[in-house]
C-alpha cells in the first residue's frame, strides 16, 4: 500500500540519547527494513524514541504483514519527504492460488476455496500467462482494505466495521512482472491443495500487489491472495541501504543526510554564496528554464532548498536551511 504524505507530529524533548548535533545535523532520512508484524506507525513510534525526537515521519506505507523498504524522515527530513513522490517501487511476493480472502492476503477471512479438481486442471503455463496480463498500463481495483478514503473514511476502517467496500478501478503501470518458481502443493503439510507462485514486480506508485494476486486468482477461477510481500526499493531508495530496527536501536544513525538525499531525489542547480543567503532569507532567484522541482546547492555542498520556476521567479517550495537555523 502507498500513501505519499508522511506522518508527523510536533517535536518535543525525548529522554533517548538519539542522534547528536544540531537540528540540521540530525536531519535526513532513514531507510528502514521494516519487519513483519509492525505497522508503519509502529516503526515511527520506535524511531522517535531511538532518534530522540518527535519529528519523525514515514512516506509510502507498508502493510503490517509486509517487510522491506520504509523511508522515514528525521527532523527537517519530514518536511522534505512531503515533496518527494516515489514514482516506482519493486516488490518480491508469494501468491497462493486456490483461496480468496477478504483482505486479499493471508491475514484475511477466507471467502472461497477452490476444489481440488479445479486446481488439478490448472497448469504452470496457464498461471504464467495469467500473470502476464497484469503487465503494462492497466486498470486496477485497489484492495478494499487499502488506506484510500471513502466519504472521509479509510476503506480498511469501513471493511472492519462490516461494510461492503468496492473501490473503483484506476490506472496503474506495471513495468515488469517476472514469475519465478511455480509449484502445486498437495500433501499432508498443507491445509488444502493450492498453487504457489513467486513473483517480482516493478510498478508505479499506487499499484497494489495484493490486487494482482486477487485478479490472477479470479482470472483462473480459483481465487488468489498474497502470503508474503517484501518491498525491495521505493524510488531511489534500495533495500541494500536499509537498517533493521535492531541495528538502529544499537546505533542511531541516518541513512542519508538532508544534503545527500535532496541531491539524490532531485536535479541539482549550483548557486553562489550570495544566492544561498538569499534563499535562506526566503527570497527568490532568477529562473534558468529548468522544468519541475530541483535542488539548489551552495559552493560548500549545502543543499539550501527545493525550487520551482514560475514566470520570472524561481521560488522555494521547501527551504532546508532557513536563516537562523543551525
From TrEMBL:
Residues 48-209 form the Pseudouridine synthase II N-terminal domain. Signal peptide: none annotated. Residues 266-321 form the tRNA pseudouridine synthase II TruB subfamily 2 C-terminal domain. The active site is at residue 63. Keywords: Isomerase, tRNA processing. Its EC number is 5.4.99.25. InterPro entries: PsdUridine_synth_cat_dom_sf, PsdUridine_synth_N, PUA-like_sf, PUA_sf, tRNA_psdUridine_synth_fam2_C, tRNA_psdUridine_synth_TruB, TruB_C. It holds the Pfam family TruB_N. Residues 210-250 form the tRNA pseudouridylate synthase B C-terminal domain. Residues 1-22 are annotated as: Disordered. The keyword Isomerase applies. Coiled coil: none annotated. It comes from the Bacteria. It catalyses: uridine(55) in tRNA = pseudouridine(55) in tRNA. Belongs to the pseudouridine synthase TruB family. Type 1 subfamily. Responsible for synthesis of pseudouridine from uracil-55 in the psi GC loop of transfer RNAs. This is tRNA pseudouridine synthase B. The gene is truB.
Amino acid at each position: 500500500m502507498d500513501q505519499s504524505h508522511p506522518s508527523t507530529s510536533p517535536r518535543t524533548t525525548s529522554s533517548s540519547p538519539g542522534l547528536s548535533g544540531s537540528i540540521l545535523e540530525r536531519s535526513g532520512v532513514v531507510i528502514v527494513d521494516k519487519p513483519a508484524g509492525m505497522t508503519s506507525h509502529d516503526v515511527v513510534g520506535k524511531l522517535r524514541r531511538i532518534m530522540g525526537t518527535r519529528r519523525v515521519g514515514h512516506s509510502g506505507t507498508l502493510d503490517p504483514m509486509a517487510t522491506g523498504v520504509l523511508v522515514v524522515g528525521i527532523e527537517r527530513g519530514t518536511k522534505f519527504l512531503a515533496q518527494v513522490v516515489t514514482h516506482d517501487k519493486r516488490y518480491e511476493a508469494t501468491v497462493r492460488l486456490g483461496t480468496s480472502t477478504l483482505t486479499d492476503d493471508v491475514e484475511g477471512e477466507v471467502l472461497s476455496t477452490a476444489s481440488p479438481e479445479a486446481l488439478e486442471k490448472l497448469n504452470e503455463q496457464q498461471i504464467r500467462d495469467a500473470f502476464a496480463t497484469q503487465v503494462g498500463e492497466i486498470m486496477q481495483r485497489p484492495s478494499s482494505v487499502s488506506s484510500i478514503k471513502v466519504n472521509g473514511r479509510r476503506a480498511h476502517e469501513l471493511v472492519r466495521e462490516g461494510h461492503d467496500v468496492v473501490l473503483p478501478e484506476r490506472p496503474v503501470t506495471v513495468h515488469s512482472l517476472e514469475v519465478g518458481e511455480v509449484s502445486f502443493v498437495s500433501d499432508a503439510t498443507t491445509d488444502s491443495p493450492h498453487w504457489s507462485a513467486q513473483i517480482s514486480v516493478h510498478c508505479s506508485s499506487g499499484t497494489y500487489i495484493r490486487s494482482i494476486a486477487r485478479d490472477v486468482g479470479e482470472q483462473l477461477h480459483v481465487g488468489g491472495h498474497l502470503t508474503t510481500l517484501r518491498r525491495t526499493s521505493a524510488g531511489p531508495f534500495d533495500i541494500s541501504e536499509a537498517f533493521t530496527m535492531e541495528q538502529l536501536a544499537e546505533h542511531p544513525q541516518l541513512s542519508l543526510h538532508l544534503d545527500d538525499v535532496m541531491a539524490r531525489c532531485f536535479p541539482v542547480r549550483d548557486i553562489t554564496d550570495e544566492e544561498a543567503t538569499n534563499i535562506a532569507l526566503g527570497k527568490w532567484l532568477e529562473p534558468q528554464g529548468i522544468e519541475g522541482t530541483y535542488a539548489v546547492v551552495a559552493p560548500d555542498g549545502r543543499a539550501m532548498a527545493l525550487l520551482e520556476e514560475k514566470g520570472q521567479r524561481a521560488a522555494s517550495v521547501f527551504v532546508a536551511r532557513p536563516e537562523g537555523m543551525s
